[in-house]
Design brief:
This protein is α/β, with parallel strands linked by helices and 564 residues long. It folds into three domains: 24-250, Rossmann fold, CATH 3.40.50; 326-406, Orthogonal Bundle (Arc Repressor Mutant, subunit A), CATH 1.10.10; 424-563, Trna Endonuclease, Chain: A, domain 1 (3-Layer(aba) Sandwich), CATH 3.40.1350. The protein is 44% helix and 15% strand. It contains 23 helices and 15 strands. The strands form four sheets. It has a five-stranded parallel sheet with strand order 2-3-4-1-5, with helices on both faces. β12 and β13 form a beta hairpin. α8 (163-175) runs parallel beside α10 (199-215), α9 (188-196) runs antiparallel to α10 (199-215) and α19 packs antiparallel against α20. The N and C termini lie far apart (71 Å). The relative contact order is 0.08. The model has no long low-confidence stretch (mean pLDDT 90).
């Protein structure tokens, strides 16, 4: 039986213990030791292996103890792995340090009180994990009391704000070695608090927690922090001069988050589906970290698992079901006409060029449209294809990475637009349609087209769904789309429930040039007549029947009317 695939397993020990398939990324440890960075911030999109990487680092470095004080032997977790063949220096660092490991992802809560309580709970658990140090009379009495209060969640706010620094000192006193601090998903509390409205309160606490642990901590050996976004030093890393930042623009650590080509081919070969290589590449490849091309690991693993158990499976947007789309929605909701046009270009597989600003905060997100493109890039919704320098500014050429992300843009944007339609006041459009006011009808549809984002490869189907969506809320009318009638299919029929009311027939055309729109309307009206689309309505008993010829050219609409 082949190794199972680790979907959603981000604990390194569990992955090895249960013999899951593991893409060996242990040389990340060698690079950390070679780089000798004091505080290392590594940013990558969600689901690119950051949590698993920190779990692996913790397992490698930590001198770990059971609750009774006996040491835990972790050597078997790295037998046969790349790091154990890297050299004696790296082997000598194995299990030599106390490690503080803290995840901030539980702070994704609806209000500050719940988010703060979640963070306090995580801090308490980490103190409990190291409670073995209380079994020996190593700490001064006052420190033992303070340690216990934090562990039991009875401490003051300032004690929690400085808790990681305090725990570092306690561990150094016990082990006689400096401490490694690992912080995962550091930006989750900031993102969540921004969208929930308590950003200021959260950033004050996180800043205090980080400054004491990473800036003024004499017990610190080194630290690794992971997250999605590079947040400005002025927001939570104030004065932290020992911080090194490794974003997706950097070459360092590029191959350790996500799968490179050789790893994907080895994975597909192992599960005997190498023939699906091109399909996997089309859907899940395309990211560029530094100069290294990278696949989305979460999506690849999900795809392979399904392909192995179901030979007729098709690729799916697995990442879209796990990654927050809040940033994309912010872009769409606030996009100006130029930004909307650029999104259309992206969806048509074109590229756009934008300046990159790495030092940003959530508070800056709406100060410039460029900030939103930066958020999309760093969170994985866009990829870099090239970059250039102009003065002191870096400009990136950006594209949609792959079919999976294009799916998110298309489907998410269409859904949000449909939701927005429900809140718009379209009464003037409805009145124009029912009173044969073609000027207002044309103008209102053109205005609505200008407010949304078009996917022109959808051709007539796009316009068909667009106009049906606008008109389905018309009061007193039943809207039927592409139903059989007469000798063919009219694009849309609107009718009152009573045959004594009115019935409306619409036929759409698409012009290749603006000057052809009037002729397109005439052709549509002629088609309604020749195909006798009104036949079914007359048989039902309708006598007041209106026909509309509607022609589109990109984001322009022209309407002509004829009474039948």
């Amino acid at each position: 039986m082949k190794m199972p695939l680790a979907i959603g397993i981000d604990n390194y020990k569990e992955l090895i213990d249960k013999k899951y398939y593991y893409v060996d990324k242990t040389l990340l440890i060698k690079n950390l030791l070679d780089n000798q960075g004091k505080v290392n911030l590594i940013t990558r999109p969600r689901r690119f292996g950051k949590t698993l990487a920190l779990s692996m680092i913790k397992t490698y470095f930590e001198q770990e103890f059971n609750p009774d004080g006996s040491e835990i032997n972790n050597q078997h977790y790295f037998e046969g792995k790349h790091i154990f063949t890297a050299g004696e220096y790296y082997r000598n660092e194995f299990c030599q340090y106390p490690v503080i490991s803290l995840s901030l992802k539980s702070a994704r809560q609806p209000d500050f009180e719940m988010a703060y309580a979640s963070l306090i709970d995580e801090i308490s658990k980490e103190f409990g994990r190291h409670s073995y140090i209380l079994q020996k009379e190593v700490l001064p009495s006052a420190d033992r009391v303070k340690f216990t209060k934090i562990w039991e969640r009875r401490a003051d706010g300032i004690d929690y704000a400085k808790s990681l620094e305090f725990l570092s000192h306690c561990l150094e006193m016990y082990h006689h070695k400096k401490v490694i601090i690992l912080i995962d998903e550091y930006d989750v509390p900031l993102e969540s608090s921004y969208f929930r409205g308590f950003y200021g309160q959260m950033i004050d606490f996180i800043r205090s927690l980080f400054e004491s642990a990473l800036k003024t901590n004499d017990s610190l050996e080194f630290s690794v922090i992971t997250g999605c976004l590079r947040i400005s030093k002025e927001s939570i890393f104030t004065g932290l001069n020992n911080l090194e930042i490794f974003s997706v623009l950097n070459q360092n650590y590029a191959e350790y988050f996500g799968f490179v080509q050789a790893e994907v081919e080895q994975l597909l070969q192992f599960y005997q589906i190498l023939e699906k290589k091109e399909e996997v590449r089309h859907w899940y490849d395309g990211y560029l970290f530094g100069n290294i091309e990278v696949y989305n690991p979460w999506s690849v693993l999900n795809y392979v698992k399904e392909a192995v158990t179901n030979t007729i499976s098709f690729p799916k947007p697995y990442w879209s079901n796990t990654s927050s789309n809040s940033i994309v929605r912010e872009l769409i909701d606030r996009a100006d006409p130029a930004a909307k046009q650029e999104i259309e270009l992206l969806i048509e597989d074109n590229a756009i060029e934008k300046p990159v600003h790495e030092d940003i905060t959530y508070e800056d997100i709406h100060k410039s449209q460029d900030n939103l493109w930066n958020f999309l890039f760093f969170t994985g919704y866009l990829k870099m294809t090239s970059k250039r320098f102009d003065g002191d500014m870096i400009y990136l050429t950006l594209k949609i990475p792959n079919a999976e992300i294009k799916y998110i843009y298309r489907n998410t944007i269409l859904n949000w637009f449909n939701e927005t339609l429900k809140t718009r006041n379209l009464s003037s459009l409805y009145h124009a349609v029912t009173t044969m006011d073609t000027d207002t009808f044309s103008r209102k549809v053109t205005e609505e087209l200008g407010e949304t984002i078009s996917f022109f490869d959808f051709a007539e189907n796009y316009y068909h769904g667009f106009l049906a969506g606008l008109l389905k809320g018309c009061p007193g009318y039943i809207v039927k789309s592409n139903r059989e009638s007469g000798n063919g299919r009219p694009d849309l029929i609107m009718k009152t429930p009573s045959v004594q009311g009115c019935a409306i027939i619409m036929e759409y055309k698409i012009a290749k040039r603006f000057e052809q729109m009037a002729a397109g309307c005439a052709d549509a009206l002629q088609q309604i007549k020749e195909q006798d689309y009104a036949k079914e309505l007359r048989l039902e008993g309708y006598r007041n029947i209106i026909s509309y010829g509607v022609c589109f050219y990109r984001k322009e609409c022209l309407v002509k009317v004829k009474k039948l």
